[in-house]
Amino acid sequence: MVGEEKIEKNKKFARDERTLEILEAIAKLGFILFLGVAAPNAAGHIIKLLGWVPDYRNRYSTEKALKSLENKKFIRFWIKNSTGKLELTNEGKIYFAGLKAKSVKLPLRGKKWDGLWKIVTFDIPEKFKMNRRRFSAVLGIAGMYNMERSVFVYPHECKEEIFKIAELYLVHKYVRYIVARSIEPDFKIKNHFPYTK
């Protein structure tokens, strides 16, 4: 049973990696053009673009990934004059940002604290509420303390990581990074990070 779970996890990891590579290729180029009017043509073009072996297994997996992304409305196919165009939707851009954000790690909790609090604040417009919600969720998952609705605190230097995440969600110009000697009262924050007491 444990072996089967491990195999399934490995399959999911492989699917996620393939999906991430496909999304990354589209995101970098802005869109992908391909000849023909069907997804298989796009799959063949992507396989060539990413340097994958053009065998049955890769074609099947790529077509399946594209179909799944299209069903979830993360990508959009356009057809004009027998030429196909593949691009990310807004939902797809946010999903891609989420996958990339998972790879961004904040400095480990428990390392020696320098006595300075790192504070992240943001005032993101309502028109970007989905980006704001996802950005906020990622900060919490990464280990920051949510002091107030749009204020997060962390004990260690993390400016580079925070703005990398913010850029992924296209909200970096609305984010501020502050370094403070003290926050009063701070007992809730220090309870969240016991090694700062």
UniProtKB/TrEMBL annotation:
Q: What is this protein called?
A: Transcriptional repressor PaaX-like central Cas2-like domain-containing protein
Q: Do you know which Pfam families this protein is assigned to?
A: PaaX_M (PF20803)
What InterPro entries does the record tag this protein with?
Answer: PaaX-like_central (IPR048846)
Question: Which residues does the UniProt record annotate as the domain Transcriptional repressor PaaX-like central Cas2-like?
Answer: 111-185
